[in-house]
Amino acid sequence: MAETTINFGSKKIAVVTGANKGIGLEISKQLASKGVGVVLTARDAKRGTEAAESLKASGFSDVVFHQLDVTAPTSIASLANFLKTQFRKLDILVKQNTVQTYETAADCLKTNYYGIKQLTEALVPLLQKSEAPKIVNVSSTLGQLRELGDADNLTEEKVDKLVEEFLEDVKHDSIESKGWPLDISAYIVSKAALNAYTRVVAKKYPHIAINAVSPGYTKTDLNNNTGILTVEEAALGPVKLALIAETGISGLFFDRTEDSTFD
């Protein structure tokens, strides 16, 4: 994007991924309405730019678009450099990337888990410059942690091993025999891994409030608008966690706006 200086004044700075439509776009809109400067990101530059312009046309001037493909390290590095150059810090990171339809299980895990991990690590240094940093991982109640055993003693290595074992079983067509879920198995495993990673990284960075939230079954293009919630309703939980005052609330899972359980 153009090398121009962006001035959001003293506003908090938020990055929202997967924000060109649906829940991500609504999260961006609600954060902007609360006085937050929003960096709206999406893989598709044209759609992302149009989404940012639509918010500006609605009166939310402190919104800017930056292209981001969470599966591409160079794209993540570009965003991190942009944030460092323009704002020198980051207050809120809302990761909304979700793939439910995909060519392979590996593609799904690359977006919903590995990409999120890489983005988190790249932006943590900027989040640590904030007085009250927040990370919100938009996840799903389908991502339960039973497959991971003792959820209280999770490590990143254990989570990675589970994902690797799943992909190996996919490769050898042994999903059913190994007891993995048969329906949307890659999506479920990716969200279980994301939920587990949320707990792990919350312990790793105790000064950052890091939580996961299920927005609920929402009417979006991903489910052919068969959901029961509007995007306005679905965005309430992620926005609540992004703006929550209590920094001690971390490593938790929320079902919409209510504290729930990873299990």
Q: How is this fold's topology laid out?
A:
Blueprint: E1 13-16, H1 22-33, E2 37-42, H2 45-57, E3 63-67, H3 73-86, E4 92-95, H4 105-127, E5 134-138, H5 156-171, H6 185-204, E6 209-214, H7 231-234, H8 236-243, E7 253-255, E8 258-259
Parallel strand pairs: 1-2, 1-4, 2-3, 4-5, 5-6, 6-7
Antiparallel strand pairs: 7-8
CATH topology: Rossmann fold
Number of distinct helices? 8
Radius of gyration, CA atoms, in whole angstroms: 18 Å
Number of strands: 8
What is the helix content? Answer: 40-55%
Major beta-sheet overview: 8 strands, mixed
Q: How does the helix and strand content classify structurally? A: alpha/beta
Question: Please, could you describe this protein's structure?
Answer:
There is one protein chain. With 263 residues, this protein is α/β, with parallel strands linked by helices. The protein has a single domain (13-142, 197-259), classed as NAD(P)-binding Rossmann-like Domain (Rossmann fold), CATH 3.40.50.720. The protein is 42% helix and 13% strand. It is built from eight helices and eight strands. It has an eight-stranded mixed sheet, sandwiched between helices. Helix 1 (22-33) links the parallel strand 1 (13-16) and strand 2. The mean pLDDT is 91. Keywords: NADP, Oxidoreductase. InterPro entries: NAD(P)-bd_dom_sf, SDR_fam.
